[in-house]
Amino acid sequence: MFESAATALAVLFTLKGVMFLGLGVGIGLVFGVIPGLGGTTAIALLIPLTFSMEPTEAITMIGGVMGSVAFGGSISAILLNTPGIAPNAATCFDGFPLAKQGKAGLAIGAAATASSLGGLIGVAILVAVIPIAKQIVLLFTPPEFFALAILGLSAIALSTGGKFLRGLIAGGGGLALALVGYDAINGGTRFTGGFEYLYDGIKLVPTLTGLFAISEMINLTIKGGSVASEGTENIKISRVSDGITAVFKNWPILLRGSAIGAFIGAIPGVGGTVASFLSYASTVQASKNPESFGKGNIQGVIAPEAANNAKDGGALIPTLAFGIPGSAEMAIFLGVLILHGIEPGPLMLIEHEGVVFSLIVALAAAAVLASVIGLMVARPLSLITLVDVNMLAPTVISVALVGVYALNSSIGDVVEAMVFGIIGFLMIRFDYPRITAVIALVLGELAERSYHQSIMISDGEFSIFLTRPISLGLFVVTVAIIFAPTARMFLSSRKDRGAAK
Hints:
The structure is a single chain. The chain is an all-alpha fold and 501 residues long. It is 73% helix and 1% strand. The chain has a two-stranded antiparallel ribbon. Strand 1 and strand 2 form a beta hairpin. The chain starts with a helix and ends with a helix.
């Protein structure tokens, strides 16, 4: 193993290796920043370019894309409230408020550092887990998926920012949207209104683009000014170094977010969006000041960004060990491996160990390189927040809609993004939290599918969720999360009464 790692490092630090890694990182950053594109599109477009490459060269370039696209998406999430890719939506909740306060440099510095360190931690977990990957992946079956989805949905109770009833209404709307389209369990279509476009359900990327990018631009246009409109007229961009320092000051949050990202990433079909939101929700739950989140708490940037980059290391566990893609990106990546005559699965770890470590080294190097580049350009990028909204809004909306259209070449996606842009604007104006709707939309389909599969497996016995140790443990954690705020308030009131006496 050490020999393969040394060989991979030697290949990387050649002129060709550095060139392909740099190319992958550059492409990943660009595709991450542009809303609606992301790593899946980038890798799919690069597949033809890998035909004439050596396997290690192709893997290095693809690893560069995967290691950098997540941080690219955080830049637009922080500066414009526009998640470059779906997992970056959680970064919007505190990253954009920081930008509005003139602290975009702080947020970008924290995101860059958390992404870099999260990616390295994810890769370290991958290396440590490869020998026992099979046992870990096979532990998760439909009951565990259902329990995990319910755990994620419990985050709605923690993400309402003091607007519990409105948060529940928004969450209910998100769950209803998750049920739109073809029912894979019972057959037939639901709530489509006769529109064929809705047969495949509500698309996540156009929805997020509308709810965050377009709605925010509509709101800013009505208000006028610039993104960083709060405070004095002479807003100063805070030092990027403050963001770097903040990550090390909050190292427990970094470690927890990275662990959540790697764990969720290793579960096939769940993805980085769930990892980011669970990491954000757990940070809110553990905080002594949960009401500060959504208003510019730097911990709300560190947690999802660490999880977002760490999830790639986790997603590679089922991809390499069994040929089961842990995410959409990994599904495209499997095509690259097969194209170069490498069959994913247990034998790959034995017969192509060098290729595996080339990917691991490329991912680690890409995470660091992308963050270094991001830190170098953070200050000029931060100045976007001072641009007049009458110039900024048309540009952002145009780029967002082009990115949404490019994803599937579907005008329906553009219409969906515009519809959700209006819905998002109304949610802003009437003070309904958008995060609860997004969490419910992301997890609703997973919860429904896993529930029906579990019931069919158990012949209608609900006890299957309570007799399996992992699902039972996840339900216990869910109950603890739901009742923790109440317990905290009870203990606080008792403490206050004791102090009054």
